C-alpha cells in the first residue's frame, strides 16, 4: 500500500503546484505580464511657457507653445502622439494644432490647456495668457523675486492655528529703462512640496516644515522669457501649543498625565500656548530656569512660571501664553503631576 500512497501524494502535490502557477495544467497556462519599463511611463506633460503676455499688435501677437511628455525621471518621452489644445476663451486667443498661439482681443487670465493621452494615462498642463492692445509694448529686461527692502528670504513654518506660515512672493518686472512692467502673469513652482507649496499663479507660499526650498518663477512678455529663483528658508513655527493629555503606559492599565508634545521646537520670538482642558484637574508649568520666559506680545498674560489653572464651563480649554525670545533649551515640569516637557528655541 505504500507505493500507491506515495504516488497519490505526488499527484496531489503536482495538482497543488499547477493551481499555484496557472489556471490549469497541460495546454492552458497563466500569462504573466511583462514588467513595465519606468522610463517609458508618461508621468507629466510640461509646457515651455506657463505665464504669457501678448499684444494684439504684430509681431507681439503670436508665440509657439511646446508640450513635452516626460517620464518619472523628468526625461522627455519620444514617439508619443502630439498634445491636443483647448482654450478657456476662444474669442481672445486662438491656437493651431501645432501650438501657435495668436492674440485676438484684450483679455486677462485665458487658460491654454495642453492634453496628452498614452494608453489609459492622460496628463495635462496649463498656461495663463494676458492680451493687451499695446502698439509698442515694453521690452522685458529685468525680472526678480528676491526680497525687497524690509523683507527676507525666511518665513516661519505653519503653526497649529495657521496664524503664521503664509507669505506671498511679489515679482518685479522692469523694462530697459528700469521702469516697472505691471500686470504680467507669473508662474511659480516649489522644489519640495514637503517643505513649502506655492500657488502657481498668485505666488502664495504655504510653509509646512523647517528646511530650505527653491521657489522658481517665470514669465514671458511680448516674446521675451525670463525667470528667477529664491532659496527660501523655512524656520520652526512662531506659535506653539502644548497640552496635558492622559496616556496609558505600555504594560499598565492606569492612565497618567503627559505633555503633548513632550518636545517642541520653535523659532526665537515664538509664543507658546500652555493649555488645560480639564475641569477638575489643575496644572501648573514650572521652568527649571525661567529667566528668559517672557510675556507674549500676542496675548500678554505675564512672564515666568505659570501657576495652577483649569478649564471651566465658559472656557472648555484654557490657554496661558509665554514668549521665548532667546534661543536655548527650556525644560519645565508640573509640581502637581509627574509631568515634564522641553521647548527648544532656535
Write structural notes for this entry:
The structure is a single chain. This protein has one helix spanning 2-21, and strands at 44-47, 51-55, 62-64, 67-70, 84-87, 93-95, 100-103, 107-118, 121-132, 142-144, 154-156, 166-168, 172-174, 187-190, 196-198, 204-207, 211-221, 224-235, 239-247, 256-260, 263-266, 270-276, 283-287, 306-309, 318-324, 328-334, 339-345. 6% of the residues lie in helices and 44% in strands. Strand 26 and strand 27 form a beta hairpin. It is mainly beta and 346 residues long. Strands 2, 5, 8, 9, 11, 14, 17 and 18 form an eight-stranded mixed β-sheet that branches. Strands 21-27-26-23-24 form a five-stranded mixed β-sheet, with no helix packed on it. The chain has one helix and 27 strands.
Secondary structure: elements and pairs:
Layout: H1 2-21, E1 44-47, E2 51-55, E3 62-64, E4 67-70, E5 84-87, E6 93-95, E7 100-103, E8 107-118, E9 121-132, E10 142-144, E11 154-156, E12 166-168, E13 172-174, E14 187-190, E15 196-198, E16 204-207, E17 211-221, E18 224-235, E19 239-247, E20 256-260, E21 263-266, E22 270-276, E23 283-287, E24 306-309, E25 318-324, E26 328-334, E27 339-345
Parallel strand pairs: 2-9, 2-17, 11-18, 19-22, 21-27
Antiparallel strand pairs: 1-4, 3-7, 5-8, 6-7, 8-9, 10-13, 12-16, 14-17, 15-16, 17-18, 19-20, 22-25, 23-24, 23-26, 26-27
Amino acid at each position: 500500500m505504500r507505493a500507491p500512497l506515495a504516488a497519490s501524494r505526488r499527484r496531489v502535490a503536482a495538482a497543488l503546484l499547477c493551481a499555484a502557477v496557472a489556471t490549469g495544467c497541460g495546454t492552458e497556462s497563466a500569462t504573466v505580464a511583462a514588467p513595465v519599463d519606468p522610463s517609458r511611463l508618461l508621468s507629466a506633460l510640461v509646457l515651455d511657457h506657463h505665464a504669457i503676455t501678448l499684444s494684439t499688435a504684430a509681431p507681439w501677437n503670436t508665440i509657439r507653445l511646446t508640450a513635452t511628455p516626460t517620464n518619472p525621471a523628468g526625461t522627455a518621452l519620444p514617439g508619443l502622439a502630439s498634445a491636443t489644445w483647448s482654450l478657456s476663451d476662444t474669442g481672445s486667443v486662438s491656437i493651431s494644432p501645432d501650438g501657435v498661439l495668436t492674440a485676438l482681443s484684450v483679455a486677462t487670465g485665458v487658460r491654454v490647456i495642453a492634453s496628452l493621452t498614452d494608453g489609459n494615462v492622460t496628463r495635462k498642463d496649463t498656461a495663463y495668457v494676458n492680451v493687451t492692445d499695446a502698439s509698442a509694448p515694453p521690452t522685458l529686461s529685468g525680472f526678480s523675486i528676491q526680497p525687497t527692502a524690509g523683507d527676507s528670504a525666511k518665513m516661519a513654518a505653519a503653526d497649529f492655528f495657521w496664524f503664521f506660515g503664509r507669505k506671498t512672493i511679489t515679482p518685479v518686472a522692469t523694462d530697459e529703462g528700469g521702469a516697472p512692467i505691471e500686470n504680467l502673469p507669473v508662474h511659480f513652482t516649489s522644489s519640495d512640496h514637503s517643505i513649502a507649496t506655492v500657488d502657481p499663479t498668485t505666488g502664495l507660499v504655504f510653509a509646512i516644515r523647517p528646511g530650505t526650498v527653491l521657489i522658481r518663477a517665470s514669465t514671458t512678455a511680448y516674446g521675451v522669457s525670463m525667470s528667477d529663483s529664491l532659496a527660501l528658508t523655512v524656520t520652526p513655527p512662531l506659535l506653539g501649543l502644548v497640552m496635558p493629555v492622559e496616556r496609558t503606559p505600555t504594560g499598565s492599565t492606569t492612565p497618567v498625565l503627559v505633555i503633548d508634545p513632550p518636545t517642541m521646537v520653535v523659532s526665537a520670538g515664538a509664543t507658546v500656548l500652555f493649555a488645560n482642558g480639564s475641569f477638575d484637574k489643575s496644572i501648573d508649568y514650572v521652568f527649571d530656569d525661567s529667566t528668559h520666559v517672557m510675556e507674549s506680545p500676542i496675548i500678554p498674560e505675564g512672564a515666568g512660571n505659570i501657576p495652577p489653572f483649569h478649564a471651566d464651563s465658559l472656557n472648555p480649554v484654557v490657554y496661558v501664553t509665554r514668549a521665548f525670545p532667546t534661543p536655548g533649551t527650556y525644560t519645565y515640569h508640573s509640581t502637581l503631576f509627574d509631568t515634564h516637557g522641553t521647548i527648544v528655541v532656535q
